[in-house]
């Protein structure tokens, strides 16, 4: 699948291409961002901490090899609880409400985030204009991480990337260290997946996604 997406241009070429106003998505503080995260086990991070170990996931901008990279941080969120569940459990397609003490946390950032729209969610078609395409949402991680590293180096004034989640199709964000100052002191909501109040939303998300629940 990586072959569907060409390698990114050089950092200099990407910087030269610039970013047009319609290619930047302003994520507003009124919007809740959802994240499913483990609270027990190894390598657990607080809900508001960026992951410095990488690269692992689609838009990780850490340099290779996969290791601890101080100074590089990434944090993923989704625009809906279903999107968060879809991304968190995509490899097994089983929503495990217990292993790792998973929580669903929703938060509002304290300022607007400037996110590069790589999926044509808004009016722009940045990915196509700079020589790529919308396979950024689905291509092999090695290739999309190469794009993420190049974007991060070319446009260090942006807070991150907005894209379409591969599983739920919902809008997702991957933010990097410029956005570290935008986390609130407290989340809007944070509940364990085993909480009775979440059984309805989890059941409906699993039904829509075709995931199992344990």
Give a nutshell description of this structure.
The protein has one domain (2-213).
Q: What this model shows, in words?
A:
This protein is of the alpha+beta class and 214 residues long. Helices cover 21% and strands 22% of the residues. The radius of gyration is 17 Å and the shape is globular. The two termini are 31 Å apart. The mean pLDDT is 95.
The beta-strand count equals 12
Secondary-structure element pattern, one letter each: HEEEEEHEEEHHEEEHE
Largest sheet: 5 strands, mixed
In total, how many domains does the architecture comprise? 1
List low-pLDDT spans: none
| Distance N to C terminus | 31 Å
Overall structural class, as computed from helix and strand content, comes to alpha+beta
Give the helix proportion (percent range): 10-25%
Average pLDDT metric: 95
Estimated share of beta-strand residues = 15-25%
Spatial strand order of the main sheet: 1-8-9-10-5
